[in-house]
Design brief:
Helix content is 67%, strand content 0%. It is mostly helical and 214 residues long.
């Protein structure tokens, strides 16, 4: 192995399978929803914006890995799965009409998905030797920013012309608060996993290169 070869840790096959399956189903659901927004319960909810934004987000890590990391690190499947899940669960939740049928589902999605995105970003940019304070700081920096960006995108995608805009202010404050809590929880979970010796394969591009064997 040469000097540029990165440390590689095995990734469970289940993580790879879940990630690939979620991506495939996401693309199919979005394609059908664009063709027939009523089928996906996305009428007046920015179906076209989701059809553009979600694939860009779900395939962002593969694109970055291919362009910058593939020569020195194995693919970060765990972080990629976390990002894909945020897109997949929103589309699936709309398809199953969970946002309208379950009163707390929207709150749960903002809490969970902001936390998952913050976790993915932190795993990709922070070494597992980081302190809890540094982990919380990284998760909050990305998570709160992502929560604000989502609310802005949601407003321009469909809320500005929707009857729901009348109650948008308190809903936005609640969503931002839940996203912040989700980011903090993500930070604690990640740090505890690192302390327990888990998630070693989550960000191989951050690991030092192995020295060549004599």
């Amino acid at each position: 192995m040469n000097d540029d070869a990165a440390v590689r840790y095995p990734t469970p096959d289940a993580v790879r399978l879940l990630d690939l399956a979620a991506k495939a189903v996401l693309v199919v659901l979005l394609a059908i929803a664009v063709a027939n927004p009523a089928w996906g319960n996305l009428e007046g909810k920015g179906a076209e914006a989701r059809a553009i934004g979600y694939p860009l987000l779900a395939f962002s890590i593969p694109a970055v890995w291919f362009l910058f990391w593939r020569e020195r690190a194995s693919f970060p499947w765990v972080a990629d799965l976390l990002v894909t899940v945020t897109c997949f669960t929103d589309v699936l939740g709309n398809r199953l009409d969970l946002y309208d049928r379950i009163v707390w589902f929207d709150d749960w999605m903002h809490f969970m998905n902001t936390g998952l995105l913050a976790a993915a970003f932190t795993l990709l940019t922070l070494h597992r030797s980081a302190t809890l304070a540094a982990t919380v700081e990284r998760c909050l920096a990305f998570g709160v920013t992502a929560a604000v960006a989502w609310e802005v995108a949601e407003y321009f995608a469909f809320l500005a012309t929707s009857d729901e805009r009348a109650g948008a202010y308190p809903d936005t404050l609640g969503d931002l608060t839940l996203g912040t809590f989700g980011s903090v929880v993500a930070a604690v979970v990640i740090h505890r996993a690192w302390q327990a010796g888990r998630l070693r394969s989550a960000a191989p591009q951050l690991e030092p290169s192995r020295a060549p064997r004599a």
